[in-house]
Amino acid sequence: MTRPLYLLTGKEAFLKREFVQALRRRVFPNDAEAKINFEAFQGSEDSFGGFLEFIRTAPFLGAKRLAVLWETDALEENEKDSLLSHLKNLPATAVAVLSTDESNARKSDFLKQLAAIAETVACHPPFEKDLPAWVEARARQRGIQIKKEAVTVLIERAGKDLAALS
Question: H/E/C letters for each residue in the chain?
């Protein structure tokens, strides 16, 4: 089931991108619809008003619009207030994803308020001791059987880079 609002927390960019890609596939069964109704915005570079306008606009030739706002932490205080106000009244056709590098949504009042209205998704890399199990689980998801020795070699070569390991 797709929720209208997600808050991605943590610094692991690979897991965040992976979440957004999976959500995009769920929201838009065909790629043509996604090209028209999906947009990603950078909190530090793009117009905050553009993000709000995009999620408030009705979808074109589809049922939903999906907007991602990376670097939510970079917004000005007045933009954060405006964002909270608009997110509480999202159109039924909108799906929004907000991303913060903060690992704990309780660290600021803004993030606490976001977490109260959004589904929070933690995007943290596995601990070093858990990395072999993470690699094995990824392999299983793809229908690949991998030996423990191969997992060890892979981790030695790729390090903790989840994108490379995946």
Answer: CCCCEEEEECCCHHHHHHHHHHHHHHHCCCHHHHHHHEEEEECCCCCHHHHHHHHHCCCCCCCCEEEEEECHHHCCHHHHHHHHHHHCCCCCCEEEEEEECCCCHHHCHHHHHHHHHCEEEECCCCCHHHHHHHHHHHHHHCCCCCCHHHHHHHHHHHCCCHHHHC
Count of CB atoms within 10 A of residue 139's CB? 18
46-73 tens-digit pLDDT: 878 899 999 999 999 889 999 999 999 9
Tokens matching residue 3 = 């929720």
DSSP secondary structure code for residue 129 in this structure: G
Could you please report the per-residue DSSP string of 94-106? EEEEEEES-S-GG
39 exposure class (CB count in 10 Å sphere: 0-12, 13-18, 19+): middle
**Residue in the structure block whose two tokens are 């690992």:** 103
Token pair listed for 76: 């000005």
* CB of 1 closer than 8 Å to CB of 23: no
pLDDT digits (tens, 9 = 90+) for 73-116: 999 999 999 999 999 889 999 999 999 999 888 888 999 999 99
